[in-house]
Amino acid sequence: MFAIAAVSQNWGIGKDNHLLFHISADMKRFRELTEGKTVLMGRKTLQSLPGGRGLPHRRSIVLTGDRSFTAENAEIVHFPVEAVFQAGAVIGGESVYRLFLPLCERVYITKVFANADADAFFPNLDADPRWQVEYESEIFEENGLRYQFVDYVPAEEEDDLADLLPDRSEPTPFAPVEDFTDLTGFM
């Protein structure tokens, strides 16, 4: 599973249920990475799409708590577990990103070097030690907006757990049963 988003300098992704930026190269990258795949989104993200229906050439799964919600060209689920084994690409919004990000093997971010008034945000992967940059494109410009494609992958796990485990280089002798009499009451 992977996530994909375009973010502002402060990791904003939307305002009033609309994208912050419209960059044709970003839209092309989104299309190339998601066509033919299953995409997972929340209800508000679906409603922000043209016609409020699922994306063409993709299987669209919509996670919502609204049991009466229906939409054209979309499968509606009400629990994350219903979507977790089906999703290929997590496409928003904020709460869906936060819920499924720990399960993602890669995150495709378009970083736009601009401030924008946002009310929805993607988690700041640069400030999260669990993620590391694997790829950064050159910086491009379109319609006065400078942007860069950045791919993140989970950071290599450190051996911190090994430090917490007891030293097993010497075998631990098995305690005789009589050593447990105080705890068990058995003789």
How are the secondary structure elements laid out?
Layout: E1 2-7, E2 12-15, E3 18-19, H1 24-34, E4 38-42, H2 43-48, E5 59-63, E6 75-77, H3 80-84, E7 89-92, H4 94-100, E8 106-112, E9 120-121, E10 131-136, E11 140-142, E12 145-154, H5 160-164, H6 181-184
Parallel strand pairs: 1-7, 1-8, 4-5, 4-7, 5-6
Antiparallel strand pairs: 2-3, 2-9, 8-12, 10-12, 11-12
Mean pLDDT over the residues: 89
Number of helices, counting only DSSP H or I runs of 4 residues or more: 6
Number of strands: 12
Percent of residues in β-strands: 25-35%
Indicate the overall shape: globular
Residue stretches low in confidence (pLDDT < 50, at least 5 long) are none
Q: In terms of structural class, how would the helical and strand content be classed? A: alpha/beta
Main sheet: strands, sense, barrel: 9 strands, mixed
Order of H and E elements: EEEHEHEEHEHEEEEEHH
Any overview of this molecule?
- This protein has 187 residues and is an alpha/beta fold.
- Helices cover 20% and strands 30% of the residues.
- The chain has helices spanning 24-34, 43-48, 80-84, 94-100, 160-164, 181-184, and strands at residues 2-7, 12-15, 18-19, 38-42, 59-63, 75-77, 89-92, 106-112, 120-121, 131-136, 140-142, 145-154.
- Strands 1, 4, 5, 6, 7, 8, 10, 11 and 12 form a 9-stranded mixed β-sheet that branches. A 3-stranded antiparallel β-sheet has the order 3-2-9, with no helix packed on it.
- Strand 11 and strand 12 (145-154) form a beta hairpin.
